[in-house]
Design goal:
Length: 600
């Protein structure tokens, strides 16, 4: 499964699964009448994905997985989306996003009248304010090094840009919010407000024990900005709100309370079968963005590429989004006579092995020894070569091979040290030691299973004792950063625009920095990166960051992933995209081929 990077020209992956926790606070909110379009016998499609749904909030560090984001993308709307050419497309039917000043950078967001949640409540400035509060880290006073203070919202993305804002100005119309930045921000256009406004403020307020949304606004307004150098006792009310945002929307099943899965987008979730499938139906009130043609979409979760292909062969699926491996293309080619079409392309994503900076890997020489054993070439040959004959191990932590800066970066970033397996060098570094290493991976993903098996076999030759820490498709992502393993095999996938994905993953204290990497010099470079708008200067900073990461024996990227999308003859409008939303980027264009009356 893949974890998302909130921004960056790269693609990554990861997953999370968590049963919905009991909600605190008031629960007497009236059950809404959801705006579901009537069920029909046609106008439907079945899509097969690798990973299993686990939360209605894809913006938390543990909920930040590809499948959770795709479901959110289909059920929520915002000020923009990113197309398959990596263009930022404004959705002015939802609202307006206006840069009103360059100095200081000031951006005004206005939601159009008529935009509403599926319980009939309008989307307002309160919903925008809640997203800002969660994304900005405004209230945090945690000091990661000292272990003091409080971090409230567990946001998956990088907070560096939003952290430079003052408390927003809310419009008198209750539909607008203005952000004023104290520094330039390279990614300002995608930093906020899209692709969707996911969490309804009126629901969060009541579920957190507040009387109403006005009480939420008042609490956020009067709570001071946090200062890591001067931590205060945790604010109990703010903690309750953040806890609800962090975990209150996590679930593998459909909540009994519809308020926990409200939509403001084209579709509304109708049913969820744990670790099996999810079904969405069209939101009959939705008209504030691209309007879908299908009345119903069912998403099934199948990790095996071969099993996904079989669903197309049996006409049990219309679209499959595979994590393909050797042999997949031959299997799809055999279905051409059935009218199956396959689209293939490099994703802005990569698989990688990360080592924790604690436990047996607290010592750099042990990390270096382990990396000497990783058979990256063999992993590429057995997993990727069948899809791309030119595939090679990925030798940068921040660039992809098709980026201009990649060739120069790999010459001196330190990746050459781990290009080939050297068991004898690993033994010398271990000096007779035999550390026990538990490796986390998705045991329902055949590619990850194979990568784990190859790493286990090679590392064992050097004296490492490998423990299988594999977990199921909806569970392994929740374990990331939890301290229950020593190394993890997973992937990252990018939105395809911006640079904020780099500090999201590598900056000290980031909620998506799962292995505890920290380098003050790298942090300073990343702080400069997010305020740098010139591409050549960004590349120079990224080159320096790349060197810092490799020099730390952080882990190794394995390979850039090859994306494969296949679809049957009964569906139209399907188009491959290399970024986070993948084949879903234009789901509103999907349509069912109508069979003429009398045809067979």
């Amino acid at each position: 499964m893949r974890l998302r990077m909130t921004a960056r020209v790269a693609v990554m992956a990861a997953a999370v699964a968590l049963v919905l926790s009991a909600c605190s606070g008031n629960s007497e909110v009236a059950t809404p009448t959801l705006a579901v379009a009537p069920s029909v016998s046609d106008g439907s499609a079945t899509v097969v994905e690798v990973n299993a749904f686990s939360t209605f909030n894809p913006n938390t560090a543990q909920g930040n997985t590809d499948i959770n984001a795709k479901i959110s993308y289909a059920t929520h709307s915002g000020f923009f989306y990113i197309d398959n050419k990596l263009n930022i497309v404004r959705n002015e039917k939802f609202g307006r996003m206006e840069k009103t000043s360059d100095n200081p950078l000031t951006v005004k967001y206005t939601v159009n009248e008529g935009v509403k949640w599926s319980d009939g409540t309008p989307v307002t400035a309160a919903d925008l304010l809640l997203q800002w509060a969660a994304f900005s880290g405004f209230y945090d006073d945690a000091d990661a090094e000292a272990g003091t203070g409080t971090s409230y919202f567990s946001y998956a993305g990088d907070r560096s840009g939003a952290a430079t804002t003052d408390f927003p100005e809310l419009g008198a119309d209750n539909r607008s919010m203005t952000l004023k930045y104290s520094k330039p921000v390279a990614d300002w256009e995608v930093a906020f407000g899209g692709p969707g406004i996911d969490i309804p403020a009126h629901v969060l307020a009541r579920k957190s024990g507040l009387n109403d949304v006005d009480a939420l606004i008042d609490l956020l307004r009067r709570s001071p900005r946090g200062e890591s150098g001067a931590p205060e006792p945790a604010n109990a009310q703010l903690r309750a709100i953040a806890d609800m945002w962090n975990t209150g929307f996590d679930t593998k099943t459909l909540p009994a309370d519809p308020m926990l899965y409200l939509s403001n987008g084209p579709y509304i979730v109708r049913s969820v079968e744990p670790d099996q499938s999810l079904t969405m139906v069209r939101n009959k009130d939705y008209n504030w963005g691209p309007e879908p043609k299908l009345d119903e979409i069912t998403v099934r979760y199948i990790g095996s590429a071969a099993a996904q292909v079989q669903t197309l062969k049996n006409n049990d699926a219309d679209i499959i989004a595979l994590q393909a491996s050797a042999g997949t293309m031959d299997q799809l080619a055999a279905l051409q006579s059935q009218g199956v079409t396959a689209e293939v392309g490099n994703q802005l994503a990569y698989d990688h092995l990360d080592l924790n900076f604690t436990g047996p890997f607290a010592e750099k020489n042990v990390r270096e020894a382990f990396l000497e054993t990783v058979p990256r070439r063999e992993i590429v040959d057995k997993i990727v070569k069948g899809l791309d004959t030119n595939a090679a191990p990925l030798d940068s932590q921040v660039f992809f091979p098709d980026q201009a800066a990649y060739a120069g970066a790999v010459l001196d970033n330190g990746s050459a040290a781990y290009r080939d397996v050297d068991i004898e060098a690993a033994k010398r570094l271990l000096n007779g030691a035999s550390p026990e290493i538990r490796i986390l991976y998705d045991r329902d993903n055949p590619n990850r299973v194979q990568a784990y098996s190859l790493i286990r076999e090679s590392a064992s030759r050097a004296g490492f004792r490998i423990v299988d820490g594999g977990l199921g498709a909806s569970d392994w992502g929740r374990a990331l950063g939890g301290g229950t393993y020593d190394a993890a095999i997973f992937g990252w996938i990018s939105a395809g625009v911006g640079v904020a994905g780099v500090p999201q993953v590598f900056k000290t204290g980031s909620d998506s920095n799962f292995n505890g990497f920290g380098d003050p010099d790298a942090d300073r470079l990343m702080d400069e990166l997010i305020t740098t708008t010139e591409r050549s200067k960004q590349d120079d900073l990224l080159l320096q960051i790349d060197r810092k990461i490799w020099n730390s024996a952080y882990g190794v990227p394995l390979f850039q992933t090859v994306g494969v999308v296949a679809y049957g003859k009964n569906i139209t409008g399907v188009k491959f995209a290399p970024s986070q939303t993948g084949v879903w980027w234009n789901f509103w264009e999907w349509d069912q081929v109508k069979t003429p009356a009398g045809a067979s």
